[in-house]
Amino acid sequence: MGGACQTIDWVATSKVGCVQVKVYERQNLDTFTVSLDLSGPLGNGLHAQYEDLIQQTAYWDSYLIKKDCNVELLINRLDKHSQIDHIVLGEGRNNYAMLLKSSG
């Protein structure tokens, strides 16, 4: 009974007149940064297996997002501003769609 008393919201109970209980929801704060290196073994051009690397990255991103983790993606290719592609932290399906779009 000691554990149950810890979740009773005594202030709300006194206002309402019946027992009010605090409900706690687990929040996942796991954050992952995935780095995808598509360069060839000598540092120039694309890796011969770049499609497999993209597919594996998409799999792991999907797995982590389904586990409610925050994921960001770094790809060693340059974008239109000559910066390394960086998909920032996000959550859920929208983030997953951005990750797939950028890695494909």
Task: Please provide a written account of the structure.
This protein is α+β, with helices and mostly antiparallel strands and 104 residues long. It has one domain. The chain has helices spanning 2-5, 10-16, 50-66, 92-103, and strands at 31-36, 70-78, 84-90.
Using brief descriptors, characterize the structure shown.
104 residues; single chain; alpha+beta; 3-stranded mixed beta sheet; disordered N terminus; rod-shaped; DUF58 domain-containing protein
Give a summary of the structure in a few sentences.
The chain has helices spanning 2-5, 10-16, 50-66, 92-103; strands spanning 31-36, 70-78, 84-90.
Residue windows where pLDDT falls under 50 for at least 5 positions: 1-5
The structural domain count equals: 1
Query: How many β-strand runs?
Result: 3
Largest sheet: 3 strands, mixed
Topology as a string of helices (H) and strands (E): HHEHEEH
The chain-level structural class is: alpha+beta
Annotate the secondary structure layout.
Blueprint: H1 2-5, H2 10-16, E1 31-36, H3 50-66, E2 70-78, E3 84-90, H4 92-103
Parallel strand pairs: 1-2
Antiparallel strand pairs: 2-3
Helix pairs in contact: 3-4
Organism: Exiguobacterium marinum
Protein name: DUF58 domain-containing protein
